[in-house]
Design goal:
By secondary structure, this protein is mainly alpha-helical. The chain has two domains: 127 residues, no CATH class; 154 residues. It contains nine helices and two strands. A two-stranded parallel ribbon has the order 1-2.
């Protein structure tokens, strides 16, 4: 699933979405493309990986359902992983065949992210990570519960704004950082600048929010390893995410940096979803 996410990001960032023309599932009229260009290779490889991994995910979902169906979250995660994978594939196919608006295309990465998170959590259940960290003994206060669910939902908004930046080609509309133009700090004056600066503002808020949660957990939850290290790692990842976001602008869309940016937000979202899972299982804590 991580390869699918990064492959999709690579397709978008290299403008290879029409590498196989307006053909799907074939490529330029052939099952196996005859003429191989960089765009064809990237797009066809992404389709191939998605198809193979899709089969593996269906196998995993059925197998997990049969072997771990007694675990509360298994059936929901099995259905979600397959459903969102198929949905993102259909959106990708619709874009190739008929084209889609930028605001619809921005959903593509986010939907893939939901499938990735479902597969990740299903994998953690299979490997019984909960038992290794004694998460059945975790106690989380109402305050941290609200913050966990809130920041996870908000992170999806941040993901959407970031995808919108790329699909509207607004990545370099603001050449400076942190402001659009550091020599004149004014409000954005067109839609593309609003999209770019809106994403930066959304990203800044999630950094601050996760910093606050990490500080709160450091004070109150040092005796609970899964909670303490989960939020510590989440803060580290969001700082790496913010750093690569800055470098995307300063390096003028360096491909390696841009892919790292996509990788970090994928890891962060997966981790936040795991923290939500812990919240759903934990007992109430008075403080």
């Amino acid at each position: 699933m991580l390869f699918i996410l990064l492959g999709g990001a690579l397709v978008t960032k290299t403008d290879s979405g029409l590498g196989c023309g307006r053909n799907w599932p074939d490529c330029n009229g052939n099952l196996i493309p005859k003429e191989i260009t960089a765009e064809v290779l990237i797009e066809f490889s992404h389709r191939l990986v998605t198809g193979v991994v899709g089969i593996l995910i269906v196998v995993l979902a059925v197998w997990a359902w049969r072997k771990f169906g007694h675990v509360r979250e298994t059936k929901f995660l099995a259905i979600s992983s397959v459903f969102f994978l198929v949905l993102q594939a259909l959106i990708g196919a619709a874009q190739v065949l008929w084209g889609q608006g930028d605001f619809i295309l921005a959903l593509h990465f986010g939907i893939s992210l939901l499938s990735f998170a479902s597969v990740l959590l299903l994998t953690l259940l299979v490997f019984e990570v909960d038992r290794k960290f004694d998460t059945d003994k975790i106690r989380i206060s109402k305050k941290l519960r609200y913050h966990t669910i809130g920041v996870t939902l908000y992170s999806y908004i941040v993901v959407y704004t970031g995808a919108l930046v790329r699909h509207t080609e607004s990545s370099l509309i603001c050449p400076d950082w942190p402001f659009c133009r550091n020599d004149q700090i004014v409000l954005p004056n067109n839609m593309y600048e609003w999209i770019q600066m809106g994403h930066r503002a959304a990203a800044a808020l999630i950094v601050i929010w996760l910093a606050y949660i990490a500080w709160h957990v450091y004070k109150e939850y040092r005796d609970q390893r899964a909670v303490y290290w989960g939020w510590t790692i989440a803060f580290i990842i969001v700082m790496m995410q913010a750093t690569t976001g800055m470098l995307v602008v300063l390096t003028k869309l360096n491909l390696a940096v841009a892919l790292l940016h996509s990788l970090f937000i994928s890891l962060l979202f997966g981790l936040l979803c795991y923290m939500v899972l812990l919240v759903s299982r934990s007992r109430a804590k008075t403080k």
